[in-house]
Amino acid sequence: MPLLDMKENLEVPFKELSENFKRQLFYGTNGREVSLSYVNSNGRKGIIKRPVEGVVNTMYRLLRNNNAQKSMANLEQYIVKKKCSHCNGERLKDEGRLVKIGPTRYPEATNMNISKLKNWCHQIYNTLTTEKKDKSKIIFMKILYQLKKMEQVGLNYLSLNRSVPSLSGGESQRLKIAT
């Protein structure tokens, strides 16, 4: 299935497509019409000629819709939930995944629930030298303050790596109250 005016073959892996094509796929053709030839399963052939809105622009348009449930239903057709094989679902670059705080890697800390994370912060702080405690005291106080607020609204079972769309309506409201 080639894109005629861009001379792109859509049957090749995504990484082999040109950067220009990828940019237009994501952000649209800015009103410029493109031609796509196709052959459907019945053997019918044709050419479609029209501007391309782009994936990002389509998603923004759907999200602007006031009905959040309808917007999410429309967007779900474009979303695939799959654990990244490179980061193993930790959703961080290599550098971020290697950061250690004491004996704990950063992604391991964000995977703890709020109650465990609060206790872990106290334990880490207590292992610091006096000089390091002085330097990091304000940071720890701010983190612990936010964690305490999340506990107070009953979100102590959540972890920081939980994606916002996976929260229930009640959890989202309590998170707004806490923050």
Question: Could you describe the 3D structure shown?
Answer:
It is a single chain. The protein is elongated, with a radius of gyration of 24 Å. A two-stranded antiparallel ribbon has the order 1-2. By secondary structure, it is of the alpha+beta class. β3 and β4 form a beta hairpin. 4% of the residues are buried. α2 packs antiparallel against α3 and α6 runs antiparallel to α7 (130-152). It has helices at 19-27, 55-64, 68-76, 94-98, 106-110, 114-127, 130-152, 169-178, and strands at residues 2-3, 8-9, 33-39, 45-51, 100-101, 104-105. Helices cover 47% and strands 12% of the residues. The N and C termini lie far apart (49 Å).
List keywords for this structure.
179 residues, alpha+beta, two-stranded antiparallel ribbon, 8 helices, 6 strands, elongated
Shape category: elongated
Q: Structural class of the helices, strands and pairings?
A: alpha+beta
Rg is: 24 Å
Percentage of helical residues? 40-55%
Strand order of the largest sheet: 1-2
Number of strands: 6
Q: How is the biggest beta sheet arranged?
A: 2 strands, antiparallel
User: What is the oligomer described by this structure?
Assistant: single chain
Overall residue-averaged pLDDT value:
85
Tell me the fraction of residues in β-strands, as a range.
Answer: 5-15%
Runs with pLDDT <50, length 5+? none
